[in-house]
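In the previous chapter we treated chains in isolation. Here, by contrast, the input contains two separate entities that must be folded as one system, with a combined length of 921 residues.
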Amino acid sequence: MSDKTASLAEERRPGSFIKNNLRDYGMLLSLFAIMAFFEIATDGTLLQPLNLTNLVLQNSYIVIMALGMLLVIVTGHIDLSVGSVSGFVGAVAAVLMVRHRIDPAIAFAACLLLGAAIGAAQGYWVAYFGIPSFIVTLAGMLVFKGLALAVLEGQSVGPFPPTFQKLSSGFIPELFPDFGTLHPTSLLIGIALAFAMVYASARGRARELSHGIEVEPYAFFLGKSALLAFVVLYFTYMIASHRGLPNVLVVMTVLIALYAFVTRRTVIGRHIYAVGGNAKAAKLSGIRTERLTFLTFVNMGVLAALAGLVFAARLNTATPKAGTGFELDVIAACFIGGASAYGGVGRVGGAVIGAMIMGVMNNGMSILGIGIDYQQVIKGLVLLGAVCIDVYNQRR
Amino acid sequence: MTALLEMRGVSKGFAGVQALRDVNFAVEAGQIHALVGENGAGKSTLMKVLSGVYPHGSYEGTIVFDGAERRFRGVSDSEALGIIIIHQELALIPLLSIAENIFLSHPPARYGVIDRDAVYTRTKELLAQVGLHEPPDTLVTDLGIGKQQLVEIAKALSKRVRLLILDEPTASLNEADSAALLDRLIAFRDQGIASILISHKLNEVERVADRITVLRDGFTVDSLDCRAEPVDEQRIIRSMVNRDLAQRFPERAANIGENVLEVENWSAHHPLHPERKVVKNVDFHVRRGEIVGIAGLMGAGRTEFAMSLFGRAWGTGISGHITIDGREVTLSSVPAAIEAGLAYATEDRKQLGLILADDVRKNITLASLAKVASRGVIDDFRELAAANHYRTAMHIRSHDVYQETATLSGGNQQKVVLSKWLMTDPKVLILDEPTRGIDVGAKYEIYRIINELAAAGKGIVVISSEMPELLGICDRIYVMNDGAFVGEFDKADASQEKIMHAIMRNRSLRDGVTANDAQATGAPL
C-alpha cells in the first residue's frame, strides 16, 4: 500500500500533466499534423473554403455512423452490417420517394424506423441469444446488401425530390442576405458556438476547482481554449466564405453534442461503459446488460439509416453499390479515435476525430492524385499504427 | 528410505500476505504423502513453488529433488524431472480425443508428422495402466469427470512421472470413482512412483497416506507418520484448526432484532446441467443486527445459494419462498433484488465485483446512479460527494476517488465493493468471502465495518471458507455441504471441530442417504 501511494505521488510531479494526458490530446495533435501535412503537400488546396465544405459533406455519413459504432464497440461488440444497412435504407428511401411519390418527410421517418427495426433484429440475437455480434452482423451485411439489390432491381433509382436533396446539399437559410458573400448567419452561429464552448469549459473548470478537484494547469487551459476558439472561428470563416453552413453539418454537430452528453453525463451512458468494462460485474450491480446491448444496436440501426439517407441525398440517387465498405471506415474511425477492441473504453470526441483523420486522408490523397490502391494501403497502415501506439501507451 | 524430494525453509509472500513461512516438506520415493490444511493454509502455493509455477527467485528456500538442488524456471523444468501436477480444474481440451489430449505437448512424430499408430498403441497402454477402458479416440467431453481425472493421470504417466501431485482429485468424484482413483495411487506406490495428495476428505487421507503434513497459516504445524502408528481424523482436524483466535476480531455487542430475511425450501439447479440440483431445499433466516455465517468447503454450493437468491443471478429451475420484512417477495432480476433491499458482494472481486479500469468513484456509484442523477442525467458533484463520503467513511486508501480501482490493494478494493453496496442502502448484505486475499490488518478493518453495519440494524450474511473468521464474527453459523444445510450452531455452541464434523459426517453419509435426510440435522431453531 505504502509503496503504491509513493509511486502515485511521484507520478503527480509538476510537468507530468502533459505526459499523463498525452493520450487525450494525442489524437487531436495527430489530426492537426495530418491536416498541416496535406495543407502543405496540396499547396493550400485542402483548407480552401470549397474543399473544406466538400470535406464535411463527404464525411458526414461516416461521422454519423461512428457515433453509433462507438457505443457498439464500447459495449464490447462490433457491427459489420452498417454499410449494407445504410445502402439498403437509401434504396428503400429512393423507392418510396421516387417510385411511390411518398412525401419526403414521411419517407424519411419511415426509413429511420426501418433502421431501428433492423438494429433491433440484429441486436436481439446478440443481446438475448448470445450469438457473437461479429457473426450476426456479418450475416446482416450479406442480407442487406442483397436486399438493397432486390429493392432496386439492380438499377439506380433517382433523382430525389428537391426537399430531400436539401438534407445533404442544402445550406442553412441566410437571414441577412445583404451582407455579401460572407454568410453572416453562419458566421454568427460559429462565433456563438466558439464562445459557448469556451464558456462551458471555463465554467466546468471553475466548478471543479471549487470542489477541490485537480484540474489542468491554468496556462494549459488558456492555451487549449484559445486554440479551440481559433479553430472553430477559422473553420466557420472558411465555411462562411463559401456557401455558409451545410445542413448536414448542423445535423452532425447536434448529434455529436448529443452523444457526447449522453456518454459522459447520463446514467445510461455510464451503464454502457460499465457493460463494456465488465459485463458480469455490471449485471451483478443491477444493470440490465442485455437490454442495453440491444439498445445500442437499435441506435446503430437508426444512425446507419440516417447515414444512408444523407448519402443517397448527396448522390441524388440510390445505387445498389451504395454503402459498400463504409463499415470499414466507420470501425477504423472508432479505433483510431482510441476505442478499445475489448470494450469499455472510447470517447465520442475520439471517434469524431478518428473519422476526420480518415476523411482528411481520403481527401488529401485524392487531391494529391494518389491512386485508390495506395490510398487503402496507407489508411490500413495508419489504423494499425494508431492502435499500436494506443496499446503501447497502455502498457507503459 | 531416502528422500526423493526435500523442500527446505520455503517462504513465499504476496503483496502484504505471507503465504508460506519457513516450510519444510519431504517426500520419500514410493510414498503417498498427504498435504492437508484449511483453504488458504498454503497448500496450493507450496505446490506451485514445487512445480515451478513460481520460478526460482520468487521464493526463499531450497528444493532438492533426486539428490540435487533444483532451480525451476517454469513448469517445463519440473516436468522434465518427472514432477507432474494435476490441478483441480483439469487441463484437458474437451473437444479433442483422449489420445490427442495425452500426447498434446509431445506427440510421437517423425519430421513433425504425428505417428498416429504409435499414439494409439501408447495411449492404450497408458489407459490400461490407469484402469480406464475407453477407446483412445473418444472425445474427452464425452467422459465423466472421474474418467477425465484418469486421463489426466495417464497423461502424467506418459511423461515418465516420478512424483505425481494431485490437487483435490476426488473433490468432484463419487465414492466409487474416488476409491478407484485412490487404488491407482496405491498401485503407483508399489511401482515406486511417489504422490502428493492434497485433499479435504480426511477419511481418504487416512486410508492411503503414508505420511501426513499439516499446513496452517503458511506454517508446517504437524507431520504424522501413518506407518508408525494409526492416525485418526480427530487428530488431523485438531492440527488443522488449532490456533489462537485472540485479538483477531474486534469486540462487538450484538443487538439482534426481528427476522429481516427468511428463505424457505430454496432450491436451484445448475444452469448448464439442469438435472443437477446444486442448492437443495435450504431453509434460512437472518435477523436485524445479526451476523450469520455460512461455513462449508469449496464447492459446497454456498455461492450458488447466495447468487440464486440475489435476483436469480445464478442457476435455473429455482424454487422456494423469500420473505423480506414479513412480506413475501419474488426477486426475478438483480435490479428487483436490489430494490427489495438485498445486496451481494461477490467472492471474486476482480472478475465479478469491480470494473477495474474504472475509478473508485464510478465503481462506488455504479449500483445506485439514480441517487445522484435527476432525469437520467448524472450530477457530477452529487456523485463526487457520495464517492468522497464513502471513501472517508470506509477509510479507502487511495490518492483520490479518481484512482483506478485496478491499482488499489485487495483490502481497499473490497472496501470499494462494500461502499457500492452500502450506497444501495440494503436491508440484508450478503458477503461472499469478504476477506479473501486480504492481509491481516485490512481484514480487521473489514470485520469492524461488518460490525458497524450489523449495529446499524442490517442483516449480514457472511460466506467464508475460513472457519476462525466465522467463529470470530458470527452470531450464528450454518454449515453447508453438497448443496444442503447440514448443521446450524449458535455462537456459544460453535467450534471448528463441530463444523468440520458436520461436514465430514455428511460426506461419509452422502452415498447412503439423500440430501434431504442429511438436512434434518440442519433444521432451523
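Chain B touches chain A at residues 16, 310-311, 313, 333-335, 337-338, 344, 346, 351-358, 362, 366-367, 369-370, 373, 376-378, 380-381, 384, 397, 399-400, 403, 407-409, 412, 420, 424 (CB under 8 Å). The two ends of chain B are 54 Å apart (CA to CA). Compare these points with the single-chain example from earlier in the chapter.
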